[in-house]
Structures are given as structure tokens and as C-alpha cells.
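Thread: quick sanity check before group meeting

JM: Hey all, I'm pulling together slides for Thursday and realized we never actually wrote out the predicted structure for the chain we discussed last week. Dropping the sequence here so it's in one place. If anyone has concerns about the input, flag it before I start.
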Amino acid sequence: MKTVAVRVSQEMWRRLKEEAEAQGRSMGSQLLYEAGRLGSTSEYEPPTTPAAWYHVTRLAARTQLSLIVAACVMGLAISLKNVVGVSSEVLTSDFVIYAIIYPVFALFAPVREGAKAWGPYGALSWGLVIVLTTVAIVAFYAVQT
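JM (edit): ok, ran it. Output follows.
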């Protein structure tokens, strides 16, 4: 994860925003693009005049979704084995199916960069679907045992 602090004038902020909208980029990716194009400095300079600041400290939507999938798969295995008490044989055979289902969520969920987090294309919305699927699987095994 990168953390970037950028100080720009109000005029440059408007220009960057217009370019980002024209190219279909988020402001964060536009600022990273601009910083890479102009060359970056590692010195921190406190603001001396009124300026617009933008802090980029977020993961990409696909990365968020992949981390949610990984956490759910690990949580599923731990909860089924230790909490529900599913036998190792059943767990091993069924995990072949889950090894197919969960990567499909991570690869083919229609998430978009810059979309609202809880919108139809947001990573958190699809993350909630993945978590609810995990809870449903655990509930299914809990009812069966």
C-alpha cells in the first residue's frame, strides 16, 4: 500500500480533476500518474500557502476483494473444523468445491475502481456477498451436524 501526500494549487487541482474525468480515472490514480510523470521527491514540505491536499491510502478494489476472499476461506476452514466439528475427510473433499467458488468471486465480481464502496460495483458490496456466502456455508454444516 502506498501513501502519497500531494500539494497542488486550486488551479492545478481543477485541471487534474478534468483530466481524470476525461480519462475515466479516479483522482487518486490521476495524482499517482501525475507524480510518476513529473518525478517524485521523498522530502516532506509543510504547507506554507493555502493548497489542496489529497491523501491516497487505499488499496485497489481487486486487492480489497482478494483479501476478503482469503480471510473468508481461512475463516471457513477454521470455523468448520474447530467450531462446527466437521470431520477432516468431509472438509478435505468439500474444500475442492470451495477452492473453485471463492477464486471465481475474486476474479469475476464486477468491481470498478472509483465506484462507491457500497454500490453495485463496489468492493465492499461484493465483500459482503462473500462474507454472507461463508456464513451460509457454515450454517449449512452446523444444521447438518
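AS: nice. Confidence is low (pLDDT under 50) at residues 41-47, 50-57. DSSP finds five helices and two strands in the chain.
JM: adding both to the slides.
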